[in-house]
Amino acid sequence: xxxxxxxxxIACAVIVGxxxxxxxxxxxxxxxxxxxxxxxxxxxxxxxxxxxxxIAGFLAAASLAPDGLLRCDRPIARILxxxxxxxxxxxxALTVCVLVAALVRPWLDEEVVPAAxxxxxxxxxxxxxxxxxxxxSLSTGVWYVAxxxxxxxxxxxxxxxxxxxxxxxxxxxxxxxxxVPVALVLGLAVTSLxxxxxxxxxxxxxxxxxxxxxxxxxxxxxxxxxxxxxxxxAVALLALVGAGALAIDWRSRIATALVTALLIAIAQRxxxxxPARWPAAAVPLQRLGRMSYSLFLIHFxxxxxxxxxxxxxxxxxxxxxxxxxxGTFGLSVVAAALLHRWVEVRPASWRAVFTxxxxxxxxxxxxxx
Length: 369
Prior knowledge:
This protein has 369 residues and is mainly alpha-helical. It is 70% helix and 0% strand. The longest helix has 30 residues, at 75-104.
């Protein structure tokens, strides 16, 4: 779906820009050249994460239950497969970050550089439990990987519940089985938007973000409607749910997610997601979108290295800092292309996961001593 790839590419560029505007001495030096732009990136750039959450929900529904019913026979294996695909590039990028942080720690402020990791911290990161267990993150944005995994597992549980009940011989659900997962997703999404997402203490859990993720899932199912009147009513209900959540408590992140979901609904109805409807000139954005996960993971160690290099160079002015930020983005894209090619797109295997986990543990323990 080239349009979704392009959207991910733009969103990832904004997220990377958000981090570039916040960490290290370079953004402080370059700020005077474009104060409004840097202030927007620093304060509002984080909202681009909502685009990823909506698209992730959309693709999860397409993969797990395109017709409303869970179509995988081994849900536990599917969850483990998802874990493997998420953590292979994640573990590789964390290893790089741990090593780069150790190299630049003497040259950069301690608040910018993650502290030397402990064994428990490394293990928690490998198991995607670092935030739930209260450990400091080894890299910026790694919370999203853990949340993505929780959301996928939660979505699979919701869409698989009717099949589980049917196999266990409970009340007959086959007649309405296709609508039960949709109702469950809608119910939890509404609860998340109205309740869980308003409690900051839950922001380490999937239920905090399920409102946004659920909007994406619901949009996919809405797009399966054959009658325009049905599609129109479903979109109106989705808009009403989002507007109700914003009326209860205005949140820019939820407004961004709602607009994203509605735009995808329109694009799906008008067949804009088809490759045939997408111009060849947008191919670079598509490519950036396809490797957006790798870019999201690897840009922080590049940012640390470039900040250390520029900060300890000869006396310089704002333009050198601005060029350093531009160079950081370019080098991050190159690093992401390598990570995407050599790790992310490789078939997930437990051997590879264990090898990368071991590399992270060894690297972390070496730099800690």
